[in-house]
Amino acid sequence: MTTPPAAPPAGGVLDEVRRAIESLLGLARTRVELFAVELQEEKLRLIRLLLWLALALALLLAGVLLAIGTLGLFLWQMMGYPGLVLLAVVVLGAAAAILWALRRHLRTAPPPFAATTAEFARDAACLREK
After folding, report:
1. Does residue 101 form part of some domain?
2. What is the DSSP string of 81-126?
3. Among 8, 57, 95, 117, which is 20 to 30 Å from 50 by CA?
4. Is residue 6, in this structure, part of any structural domain at all?
5. Range of the domain at 48
6. What integer pLDDT is reported at residue 76 of this predicted model?
7. What are phi and psi of 16, to 5 degrees?
8. Residue 38's CB: how many other CB atoms inside 10 A?
9. Residue 8 clears pLDDT 70, i.e. is over it
C-alpha cells in the first residue's frame, strides 16, 4: 500500500505572490474601466459643449448679418426700421448670454478624470499605511 504523494503546503510563497499579482491586476483593471467610463463622459461633455458653441456662433453670425443689414437699410432710408436694430441687439445679446453660460460652465466643471485621480490617491495612501 502506497500513500499518495503529499500536496505542497497551502499558503506557500508562490501562492502569496500569485494572489498579490491577481490583486494588482484586478486593481489595474478596475482603474482602467473607471478611466474608460470617465473618458466616455468627457467625450459626451465635449460634444454637448461644441453643440452649444455652434449655436452661439450661429446666433452671433445672424446678429452680425442683421446688424450690418440694418445699418445698411438705416443709412439707405435715413431713419427707419428701428425694429431691425432692436432685433439685431436681441440676437447679439442672446449669443453673448450663451457664450457667458458656456464660459461659466467650463470654469465650474470638475477637472477631467477627477474620480480616477482620486482613486489613485486613495490607493497610494492605502499602500503607504501598510
Report:
1. yes
2. -HHHHHHHHHHHHHHHHHHHHHHHHHHHSPPTTHHHHHHHHHHHHH
3. 117
4. no
5. 13-129
6. 59
7. -65, -40
8. 16
9. no
Measure the CA–CA gap between 60 and 99, rounded to whole angstroms.
Answer: 10
pTM: 0.43
What is residue 130's predicted lDDT score, i.e. its pLDDT? 63
Per-chain mean pLDDT for the chain: 81
CB 116 within 8 A of CB 38: yes
**b (16+ CB within 10 A) / e for 76-96:** eeeeebeebbebbeebbebbe
More confident residue, 83 or 39: 39
CA-wise closest residue to 103 among 42, 49, 48: 49
| 2 falls within a domain | no
**Within a domain: 90:** yes
Whether the CB-CB separation of 102 and 51 falls below 8 Å is answered with no
**pLDDT tens for each residue of 56-110:** 999 999 998 888 777 667 655 765 566 666 667 877 898 899 999 999 998 988 8
The residue whose grid cell reads 478596475 is 30
The set of cell numbers assigned to 66 is 442683421
Please state the domain count of the chain.
1
Q: Are 98 and 63 in contact (CB under 8 A)?
A: no
Sign of CA dihedral 16, 17, 20, 25: negative
